[in-house]
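so i finally got all the pieces together for this one. its two components total, 610 residues if u count the protein bits. some of the lines might not be protein, just check the labels. i wanna see the whole assembly predicted at once instead of chain by chain like last time, that was a mess tbh
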Amino acid sequence: MTPLGSAAAIGLQAISRIAQLVAVILVIATFNFVLVRAAPGDPAQVMAGQSGASDPKLLDDLRKEYGLDKPYFVQLVSHLGRVVRLDLGYSYRQRRPVVDLILERLPATLLLTVTAFCLALVIGTALGALAGLAAGSVLDTVFTVLSLVLYATPVFWLGLMLVLVFSVTLGWLPPFGYETINVQLSPIEHALDIMKHMIMPVTSLAAIYLAIYARLMRSSIIEVAQQDFIKTARAKGLSGTRIVVGHMLRNALVPVVTVAGMQAGALVGGAVVIETVFAWPGLGRLTFEALLQRDYPVLLGIFLILSIVVIALNLLTDLVYRLIDPRMTTGAA
Amino acid sequence: METVRAFLRHPSGMIGLVLLLVVVVVAIIAPMVFPVSPWEMVGAPFTPPGEDGLWLGGDTLGRDVAAGVAYGARVSLLIGIASALAAMAIGVVIGAISGYFGGKVDLVLMRMTELFQTIPAFVLAILLVATFNPSLLTIILTIGAVSWPPLARLTRAEFLRLRHREFVEAALCQGERTWRIVLGHILPNAISPILVVTSLTVATAILLESALSFMGLGDPNLMSWGFMIGAGRTVIRNAWWMSVFPGLAILLTVLAINLFGEGLSDVLNPRVSRRRS
């Protein structure tokens, strides 16, 4: 394919991706709309939450604001219009717009999930590759058993166990929070302080995905090692390292990256629980607070925003996919 | 018989089966061993394990952690199995329609499946349970509603594979009705991989349930492992046993089901098994 042709193809793909993104956001916004109407009780009461439901004036205002007396279709269109303008409603509990609450917490969640995602992917594939190249060895067996156990461990419990060992017993790491409060720190010290607080949440979140990617990479490496082009490379007299790095890793990574993209949703879900364990000031913690107060507009907004985060992580894996898949680079996907 | 014999020779599958049987037995005999409800106080608050006849200790109110773990096995198994069956029902119906009819129906259903696979399932589960209030039924239906996509994709793939086989064509030629072909001819031939994935879904369903009840979205009338860990979280400095033991129970149960399911997969369908691993 000519360079121009492939550039056009990439452009087309980017456009179709963005169209997909918009479609997904609209579908989820519609779903949220339906859910509020399906919830037991009057939609105005649902939106006002437990605190506001006893205030007849607020309920009346809400009915007017959301046009709850108008036909469903009109309500839906105006709901979608609001979502497009990033108006996700108002938290009567916290007395602030939902979108402000969410944007304030989003960076902490992104920091946690993206770090865990990248670490799991890098370390998981490295360990998996090692295990696969040494298939049948003691190392391989240890990895396999470890990944089976990790795969069966509830994330939030793993987090608590880390707290028990590293904070309660050994006193090495801060048990919760995002930073040490009430201290004056230089920017570098501050960054180090945040990193110290991140160690346990990131480890517990990454562990399971690390195990999944390692297992996949292991079987992927074993499969690739048996293929003809590896035999050809050996016959050509290429060194072992060059075969592993240049031929095997790249090909073996393809299925791992595919699965990593598919697991992004589960990773974000895991972050919600982990933030609850570690009082990490992100969207998961906000979810927990909103649940305690049954602050429904906040829950709906979080669902929408976290879905967008997952789609963004998917786009990221798509990019990685492009970089590593040999077929992609020639344009003949 | 051949299958059973093959499974008996599968080492990790057998370990899984034995562990799983232990959990099942504990779930069955819980009321006999612990006649007092796990919600009742039986000792002093914060009793350490082994004291006052409480093998696994007492919680903040002096309730027996061991009783909670035993009764929790009933809740976890019940919710795990019921919601995996719910997921199977949804997944098989969607996958079968998609794979059998193909075309536009397939396109629409698969787009929907992809969407469900993309969105954060746990966050959707939180939203659903919070909307319809936590109870045994809403939790089971919710977990079923977020766990079906892999089963739908698998069923679809199996139906696509079997759709044009001779025995299906023969049935078509004989003028058999569509539902008879689907239920009587295709589904029986697709059922074993579906059962394997359903058994593995039980494990993820148990993990999902424990996370929901940890977040305070469990059935308030049922003692569940996730709820116990959630209750132990804030007092982990004083009472490690409150969160350690229920967590170990989840770990062992999920591990048992995964080992069992993978053993089953190796024995029943080596083809799918190889693809999965």
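Chain B has a mean pLDDT of 89.
The interface with chain A takes residues 115, 117-124, 126-128, 130-133, 203, 207, 210-211, 214-217, 226, 229, 232-233, 236-237, 240, 243-244, 247, 250-252, 254-255, 258-259, 277 of chain B (CB under 8 Å).
anyway lmk what u think
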